[in-house]
Fold this protein.
Amino acid sequence: NIQSGIAEKIVRLHIVANSNSDFDQDLKLKVRDGVLDFMRDKMKECKNREESIKVLEESKDEIKAKAESIIFENNCYYSVNVSFEKTLFPVKSYDGITLPSGMYDAVRIDIGEAKGQNWWCVMFPPLCFVDEQKGIIDKETDDKLREVLTEEEYELISQKTSKQVDRVQIKFKIVEIIQDI
């Protein structure tokens, strides 16, 4: 129930590469960077999920054109398909925030045959725009999450360790004996 409540308040981005070749995976990341850079200011102005869906729906053609332009700049001629759909996403973590797996509304960008590994993030609230290398969520984004989610939903996704399963430690008696010697 909590996951579906969260899913009703956020919108995700899903990009699927043509294949798993190094070139296609690199191209997928270039498309991601270009699309996120293009959408950054538009998404920051969105105050709720409905506004973000409207902006994303209205921007589908521009998103497609941006992706095609990046692909062409990289001497490639893959087709691009941009759609808005419900998609199953796995668990995703950002700087102390962990979103549960489940069905979410998403803008999906398929590159070429779309048979490669994918990349995903949250467009609203704007978690796609955090520093993914450092995994840091700024105060403004955290405040937006708190605005959008109920207190119970926010507490669920923001608990770093209390919901984690204890780690299993495997030991070998022979190794312990050798270490003791």
About this structure: The first strand starts at residue 11 and ends at 16. Residues 160-169 have pLDDT under 50 and may be disordered.
